[in-house]
Specification:
Layout: E1 5-7, E2 16-20, E3 34-38, H1 43-57, E4 62-66, H2 79-93, E5 97-100, H3 112-125, E6 129-133, H4 143-158, E7 177-181, E8 195-200, H5 205-213, H6 226-241, E9 246-251, H7 260-264
Parallel strand pairs: 3-4, 3-6, 4-5, 6-7
Antiparallel strand pairs: 1-2, 2-5, 7-9, 8-9
Helix pairs in contact: 1-5, 2-5, 3-4, 5-6
Length: 268
């Protein structure tokens, strides 16, 4: 795995960052099966870290994209610490790629530049599944609500043809599946027009908690209550779905299967 490195290729107005365990043959960007998108480092760990750990353990290539570096925050020494924490958390989850797009924390807005930046990532890495924030978080960062709109727009932009001036050298890519995950908001409830699915993360809940724990600047001893809350939410979702621990995801399509018995009786 390579050390974190800076990149100015996204323009002089912002400074992006990437960490990866390597690239495909010939130096081309590796294709990713799954990309999880957050407004800040720690969003995906809290919302869908168990799902990412499960997918990585199953052999899928997992990547993470953060719109911002999450700074400033009260207890962090600055962006370098936060990015080191993000790289450590990615390794814990088994992710092979992580980057942040260089947009400013607290000032993230649904704008054209941010839509194109994320759509560029989708075209470059060609994921089959994108996981994004499902809903705004009342009394918490408004960046989360902006990330909802940005992720949906980027999925759309990624598949549009006749836009080579914005995406030079990157062919169109249609993302087959977009699912949303939830941050701290009690028991998640699917927004209108979305359908829930619970991922059984019982075997990966401890990994999720370890990944969140990598953010020592965000979750020091004074905020130790966060960890039992995350565990309780996972266990509650599990009770509702019939497993020991779960993560609730939502999508705009009803779940569909040709194997209902395997869906109802997994592992049998």
């Amino acid at each position: 795995m390579t050390a974190p490195r800076s990149s100015d290729e996204t323009g002089p107005a912002r400074r992006a960052w990437r960490w990866s365990d390597g690239f495909a043959a010939g130096g081309a960007p590796r294709q990713l099966d799954v990309i999880a998108v957050g407004a800040h480092p720690d969003d995906v760990e809290i919302g869908c870290g168990g799902t990412l750990a499960l997918l990585a353990a199953q052999g899928f290539s997992v990547g993470i994209v953060d719109f911002t570096d999450g700074e400033p925050t009260p207890r962090s020494s600055g962006p370098e610490q936060r990015l080191a924490e993000a790289a450590a958390a990615a390794r814990v989850l088994g992710a092979v790629h992580r980057e942040h797009l260089g947009f400013p924390n607290r000032r993230l807005f649904d704008c054209f530049e941010a839509r194109v930046a994320l759509a560029t990532v989708f075209r470059r890495h060609r994921p089959g599944l994108v996981l994004g924030i499902a809903a705004k978080t009342p009394l918490a960062s408004p960046d989360h609500a902006e990330a909802v709109a940005l992720t949906e727009a980027a999925v759309f932009y990624s598949r549009l043809t006749k836009w080579d001036d914005l995406f030079p050298g990157l062919p169109v890519h249609t993302v087959p599946q977009l699912l949303g995950y939830f941050l701290f908001a009690g028991i998640p409830e699917a927004p209108p027009g979305q359908w829930p699915i619970v991922v059984d993360i019982a075997g990966h809940l401890e990994t999720k908690l370890r990944a969140i724990g990598c953010y020592e600047s965000q979750f020091p001893a004074q905020k130790a209550h966060v960890f039992p809350r995350v565990r309780a939410m996972a266990e509650t979702a599990g009770v509702m779905a019939g497993c020991a621990a779960g993560e609730v995801l939502v999508g705009c399509r009803m779940p569909c299967t040709t194997e209902p018995m395997r869906l109802l009786f997994p592992g049998e």
